[in-house]
Specification:
Length: 249
């Protein structure tokens, strides 16, 4: 039986003024996979990712979540979807004035009916699972860049989402912390949490993704199995080696 996509995008078009960022883009995400989305700086990768959670709206085209057209939902209608589709912002987007525990408590207070004791148990278990045990009372400024990234990931999954949208999760990290993030993504995938990985970090795509989509000139120009594309797609090779990036918007 053929799997149905969790997310399907058809003909996605987005303009900012006279600039066309996306021009009829098609994309899909199936259960239990991570799809890498690569492209040149300014090619609109983050714009597209934000559209998958209702933070940007297409000028044309449709976005489907589990077969339901969510393209024109009102803001309040996105609340339930966002419990199942988490967004990991590039910089972590932690609240600077809140402790690690308070950062993780925020979505639980807003979107769960758990008791305070149940929330605390989930926070402690989640932090422990990310190797962050004992950081509950620290502020983001007390943490290294790699730890801040992991706290951001921990907050994103605290509501047990089905899909995680990763916006440059390894940007600015050293090789050790990059491997930590790769391990986290693979661990989450092993627990049934797939997602979309926007990145320039090709080794992380190879380490975590089943499929790869290359965004150029407002469209997905190449898509396919990562292992096959590694072995001989000319456009992917040109992108990786810096020969071709497509238009920047």
């Amino acid at each position: 039986m053929k799997k149905e996509p969790l997310i399907e995008v058809k003909g996605f078009t987005k303009k900012f003024g006279s600039k066309i960022v996306h021009d009829g883009l098609d994309f899909d995400l199936f259960p239990n996979e991570v799809v890498g989305l690569i492209g040149g700086s300014g090619s609109g990768k983050s714009v597209f990712l934000r559209a998958l959670i209702g933070l940007e709206h297409p000028d044309a085209g449709q976005i489907y979540y589990k077969g339901h057209d969510v393209t024109r939902l009102r803001e309040e209608q996105w609340y339930e979807i966002r419990k199942n589709v988490a967004y990991v912002f590039q910089g972590g987007a932690l609240f600077d004035s809140l402790t690690v525990e308070e950062n993780l408590l925020y979505p639980l207070d807003a979107h769960s009916g758990l008791s305070r004791a149940e929330k605390q148990k989930r926070i402690d278990a989640t932090l422990e699972g990310f190797g962050l045990g004992g950081t509950q009372q620290l502020l983001p400024s007390d943490l290294s860049g790699g730890m801040q990234k992991r706290v951001g990931l921990a907050r994103a999954i605290i509501l047990d989402p089905e899909i995680i949208l990763y916006d440059e999760p390894t940007a600015g990290l050293d090789p050790f912390n990059t491997r930590n993030i790769q391990d986290v993504i693979n661990e989450l995938k092993s627990r049934g949490k797939g997602g979309v990985l926007v990145t320039h970090d090709i080794p992380t795509v190879y380490a975590t993704c089943e499929r790869l989509s290359l965004l150029m000139d407002g469209k997905i120009e190449v898509r396919g199995d990562v292992e096959k594309l590694k072995k001989g797609n000319e456009m992917v090779r040109q992108f990786i080696e810096g020969e071709r990036y497509g238009k920047t918007k």
